[in-house]
Amino acid sequence: MDAGATIDAVRDRTETERDRLGSDKVLIAATDATLETEAVLTAASTRESGLADILGRWADESDSDVATQFGAAAEAAAERADRIDADAGDPDGFIDHLETVSGTARRVGAGLVAAPLLADRFYLQVVSFFINEADEQRADTFREIRGEASALDDGEATLGHLSESGRETAAAAATEAIEAAYDDYAETLEAMGLDPKPIC
Question: Is residue 56 scored above 90 in pLDDT?
Fold first, then answer.
C-alpha cells in the first residue's frame, strides 16, 4: 500500500463519518448552536490554532524527514489562523484527540491525513455560512483556506517516508482520529436533542 492508497483507504473507512461531518449541523455543534459570525470564526480559529500548536510540538519531537513536514504544516495552520483573525476558544474534540496521539506513524496519520480530510468537510460549511450571510469577502477567504487546509500534499509526502507497516499504522490512526471527531460531534448534537444522522 503506497502513500496514495493509504489515503484512499482512510477515505473508504471513514466515508460515513465524513459525510455527516460535512452536514450543516457541523457548525451547530462547533458553535454550541450560536450561528453567528464571531462564533463561526472562533470555531475555525480554534481548529487552526490548536493544529498549529500540536504540529509544531511534533516537529520538535520527530526525526528530520518527518519533522520538516510537521513543521511546514504547523506554519501553514498558524498562517491560516492569522487570516481568520479571531480568538481561539477551548479545544474541540479533534484537537483533544490529537493531544493523545504518540508515535511518528500515528501522528502522521492523525495530523497530516485526518486533519485535511476533516478540514475539507468543516470549511465547506463555513463557506456556505458566509454565502448565506451575504459576506462574499469572508466566503472567498474561506474558500482559499478550505483549499489549503484540505490539501494532502504534506500527508502524502510524509507517508512516503514510512515503511509499509508504518503506513498501515498511519491509516489506522487517521481513521481513529476521524472517528474521534465524529464521536465528539455526535455527542454534542445529542446533548442538544439533535440527531447527528442525516434525515432521509
Answer: yes
| CA separation for the pair 154, 88 (Å, rounded) | 24
**How many structural domains are present in the chain?**
1
- Average pLDDT (24-38) is 92
Question: For residue range 148-189, what is the model confidence (pLDDT) as tens digits?
Answer: 999 999 899 999 989 999 999 999 999 999 999 999 999 999
- Residue 197 phi/psi, 5-degree rounding, is -80, 145
The packing angle between helices 136-149 and 64-84, to 10°, is 170
The pTM of the full predicted model, rounded to 2 decimals, is 0.93
Contact 3, 167 (CB under 8 A): yes
Phi-psi category of 63—alpha, beta or left, where left has phi over 0 and alpha has psi -120 to 50?
A: beta
- In order, the DSSP letters of 159-185 are HTTS-HHHHHHHHHHHHHHHHHHHHHH
CB atoms near residue 140 (< 10 Å): 13
Residues 6+ apart with CB under 8 A from 80: 48, 145, 148, 149
Which residue range forms the structural domain that includes residue 166?
A: 3-189
Separation in Å, CA 74 to CA 47, 70, 154, 165, 178:
12, 6, 11, 25, 19
CATH number at residue 180: 1.20.910
